[in-house]
# Entry
Amino acid sequence: MPAPSSNSGSSSAEDDQKESVYYDQAMALSLSPHLETQVSSILQVKDPLDAPQFDPTEYINRLFPNGASLVCSNKQAMASMDSVLGVLRSKLDELGVEIKRLTSEQLNKGADNAEELKKARKSIEVFRVFLDLFIKIQDIKKKAAQSEEMVQEITQDIKSLDYAKRHLTLSITALKRLQMLVTAVSQLEVMIQKRQYKDSAQLLQAVLQLIQHFKSYKSIPQVAELSKTIAALQTDLNARALQEFKSAFNSDGSMTGYASVLHDACLVVTVLGTESVNSLTDWYVDLQLKTYRGLFRSGFELLSQNLQVSDLDNVSRRYAWLKRTLNTCDEEHGSIFPPSWHVSEKICQSFCKITSDDLKEVLAKKQQQIDVKELLKSLHLTIEFENQLSKRFSQQSQRDDTHRQPFKFEKSISSVFEPYLGLYIEAEDGALAGMIEEYKTSDLNLELDATTVVLPSSTDLFYFYRETLVQSARLSTGKAFFDLCNLFGKHLDNYCTNVLLGNLPRDEKRPLENEQIRFACYILNTADYCGITTLQLEEKLKDKIDDKWKDQVDLQAQRDNFLNAASVSIGALIRGVLGQFDPAYQAMAKISWGLVESVGDQSSYISDLQSCLVNSITIMGKTIGTKRYFRTFCDRFVEAFVTRHLANITRCRPISEVGAEQMLLDTHALKTTIMDMPFMGTEGSVAVPASFAKLVNRGFNRMETLLKAVMTPSDPMEGFIESYIFLIADKSTNNFQKIMDIKGIRKADQPQVMEAFQKRISSDETLADSSDILGKLDLPATNVLPSSISTSFTTIANTASNFNATQLQQLGIRSAVGQSTSLNSPISPPGDGTAKGRLNENFRKLVMTGMNFRKDLQERREIASRQAKPT
# Structure
């Protein structure tokens, strides 16, 4: 093996040096005896050499306990010594090897182990400190207990003396109080005999305070006897005070005694307690109201006046009697009773209870003969009387600066009237029914001027409602008020049905005159006003009624009825205006549209329609107060007018191609006028609402589509069929039959055309099943063509027999009528120069379209004939 290098030798020497240092430190480490014991118990050390207090001398003596063990044969002694020394050497060698091993492991672990060792030693030191501290605390606690025992032994005698002093003080105090009590009782007996109640009150108060200290001594005979004497004195004082009052007052409640004596007696009663006070005040209240009970009892009659005082019409006498009695009590008896007794308030409480019972009996007897006016008058007087009482005693309570709540006089008497308020509700029901019956004719006979917005009957009705609401809220806010709410709702429905809807024009065939149109607009305004005011009425009713009924107040059904009345009014206006068109449509039907040979200016019936429309819509624009409803009318009118005009077009069959062109010109003239509807009757000019313009365009596109289909020549029939498919875009044979009927195609030719149509649609799956061209018609391909009249379809018919929609779009299109005015441009009112100029321009372009129509037709026929000749 190679010799170890010098470096290895030096490192080995350093390791040995470090081991020796750690060994010395480990040997120098000393632990406390308690810690050594705990460590030995944990490690379960049994070898005496490992004991923390190992003593070599003691260990040797244990091996050689006496001299006899040494006085053996030398051979045995030497063998014994050698064996012991051998064991010790082997044990030392084992310990040395173990120490070196542990030291080497410690060195190999590095410097961290040294730090951990330091921490462990530091922890051991801290543990030792805490252990010493715990021991010291135990010693201090033990010494404190010993000190306390010593102090108790020293102060035991002093504490006994302190207890004796306290008991002696209490005994002396009790004897003094007993002496004072006996003296006060004796003096009280004397004062009672002398009727000196003021002094008796003071002595009695002192006696009652002193006797409280002897409650725990009632088992002592003398104290118990004294308590009985005091109780007897209290009873005697209570009886004497009551007797003083009985002697001082006559049976009619008038005072004959001395007020000062009675005042002093009240002081005694105050000391006696609440029960005595209530007993005395109840007697006094009964005495004062004795006359009232006799005078106003049921059936009592004043012979001099032959008058039943208890009847409803004498309620005011009852309240006047109480006012006189209160004045007497306040002026003559006010100095007797302490203010804290509230004698006047108790008189009023009893009065209200007696009056309530009396009126309940009177009302029950005359239930079938109660006069409503008398009932309401009595109720009003009663409510006013209750309010006066409440105000009086509330102010008195504030002056006294007490937290006591005064008696609630509200409804203390008036509550007996509530079961009979149904009579009042019935009376109001009859009054409202009569008012509405009168409104049916009064509104029709009124002369309405330009300042009128709603029917006067509506404002009268809600004014009556307001007055009735205020009056009823004073009478009751409970069940009767809830019945009134239902009554209001009932007659709102009655007014809506019989006055508003009942006065609308019913004859749909008869056109409306200007005054009728204006009156229908007033009805529309009134329905809107009533709907808004009904909501305010509902909020007011909920604000007044009791919380128990608040959630049940609901006038939503009445508001819905008024909204429905507004809608019905709009419908009546639409029917009335359309009815004005009947003469014009009759003139339209008299024209032979199948024989029209040229296109001229707009037809005379169009001028009549425009005149009626402008006149009626202008009246409505000026009269309808809410522009929202006027806009609704315009929208609904456009839909109804389109349906009506389409129906009149179909009634004018047969219609020739030229006749269809003339109708198309007339339709554009109507469209121009209808576009101005939202601004008729208004000042200034604004842009047409986009939604209204869209509605007008959609409706008039239906009529234009129908007329364009009619304009297409039926020869050749392939072109006619293709134009129908392009315009109508459906495969309905019924609709196609209608178009043939409108065009006036002969019955003999219709089967051939229908057969060709069926053959054509059989190969086209894109067509819809049906399009109601006479009603609501959706034409998805309408926007392919301009809104003005398109190029004559004669060109298409003469050039090809198998055209489709794409080929039609590829043809040149010439405008027949001037381009439509921009919908966002300002619109002038109808009848001015701008409208006439636009109409003349449309007519000029339509004439040019007719000329182009014929020219194209001739050119296409010549081209077709040349192509048909053989080359």
The CA atoms of residues 372 and 423 lie 6 Å apart.
